[in-house]
Amino acid sequence: MLHIGGARTALFNYLFAKHNNGKFLLRIEDTDRKRSTPEATAAILEGMEWLGLTPDAPPMMQFERAARHAEVAEEMVRRGTAFRCYATQEELQARRELGEEKRQAAKADGISEEEKASLQAEAHALLAPYRSPWRDGAPPPSPDAPFTVRLRAPDGGERVLQDGVQGTVRIQASELDDLILLRADGTPTYMLAVVVDDHDMGITHIIRGDDHLRNAFRQTPIYEAMGWDIPHMSHVPMIHGPDGAKLSKRHGALSTLAYRDMGYLPEAMRAYLLRIGWSHGDQEIFTDEEAVAAFDISGINRAPGRLDLDKLGQVNAHFLRLADEERLFQLLKPYWETEGSIGEAEPRLRKALPHLKDRGTTLPELAQSFAFLLAKRPLQMNKKARKAVSGEGLDRLRRLRDVLQQLPDWTAEHISVAISTYCTAQGLSMGQIGQPLRAALTGGLPAPDIAPVLEWLGRDEALGRIEDQLAPD
């Protein structure tokens, strides 16, 4: 799936590229063959398409370039910046386990400070980033021994990254291991593949999650080993839940497409995701054009952003009100048709749509606000509605029906005047006639002002609903 955190990162890349008249490129990193399925790829592409983040070239499939990645690794071996390592997985696992045993032993009671310090030093050496004994040209254990290809990590000193979001970040070279570039079966690792692909794709800027910050230090030596330009990197903080904890399912949906299915508009998701961890003055909501014009890496905050579903609802409601009515009608139609065709109700729905666009924060919520227009005759009346069309209420409704039948123009304006005139003539308040009239027209379903409701229903449907309540059982 396309996680909403990944979607925000993609949005940042997209806006940065468009702001600088560059190209927004997409790569499907599918070197992990167990996790990379056609269905997974399709879900990512569908999520990107729904969000409107269309790449400027067809997506690159990373695994298809495995031969090119291996070619670069062998070139590094020839240059002496990579080497063949004959350590087996079993040996490395045994090394880690021994290091963990030493670390636990150093915590035991009854040992001297000297023994404790010795065990801690041994544990540290065994658990430290792996530096292979073959990095300096030691011969293989046998002519046909299997091997991996490893990067010859920088030998010492400080490594510095000038990050677009995090600023100047420093680590010691001793913290880096001789990372594997080619596995024993000859397939490339992710670390090698991304660097080769970034170079071959002409990538100049990378914006990604700060969970990759350490990877930047592991990847830059590969660029250096090949004499390639290093892209400018910006590492963006994660999105957290409202409680400040790492985002998880308990905070809400994680998949971008889940928000589509919940009834959010893509432009609302773009506008909302943009403001999680990025700001530009006091402006809260941006159109696509405004976002492209304003976006810059300097506006990205170092602190994690927080998911706020109430705020997302407000942003979505804003864009629902702005939406083109034909598009909005087509988006709402599947919700209206859950129990069959909307049929003859379509003109009523279309007429009411411009006036009811502010009655929901999501598509299903908005669709529900039209329920009174879709109700089938005779209406199912709730308890309060049944009471309103009994006794005096029913008599008043009958006399009003006679007035409405005579109206030459069935518009909200004329209907409102007719009802007001009727109330004055009968000595009634608007509430005394409004309650039974609303009950007859809606069955107790929520609805706005009564005169527009009568207009949207149309003369025949509105009078028919009133007649249904006046007819003897």
The share of residues in extended strands comes to 5-15%
Distance between the termini: 56 Å
What is the molecular shape?
A: elongated
The CATH architecture assignment of the domain at 1-24 and 33-58 and 237-322 turns out to be 3-Layer(aba) Sandwich
- Low-confidence segments, given as residue ranges, are none
* Number of DSSP-assigned strands: 11
Mean of residue pLDDT?
94
Class computed from helices, strands and strand pairing:
mainly alpha
The largest sheet, given as strand count, sense and whether it forms a barrel, is: 3 strands, antiparallel
Rg for CA atoms? 34 Å
CATH homology superfamily name of the domain at 1-24 and 33-58 and 237-322: HUPs
CATH classification, class level of the domain at 1-24 and 33-58 and 237-322 = Alpha Beta
CATH fold title of the domain at 1-24 and 33-58 and 237-322: Rossmann fold
Strand arrangement across the biggest beta sheet: 3-4-7
SS field, number of helical segments: 21
The residue fraction in helices comes out at 40-55%
Pfam families: Anticodon_2 (PF19269), tRNA-synt_1c (PF00749)
EC number: 6.1.1.17
Subunit structure: Monomer.
Function: Catalyzes the attachment of glutamate to tRNA(Glu) in a two-step reaction: glutamate is first activated by ATP to form Glu-AMP and then transferred to the acceptor end of tRNA(Glu).
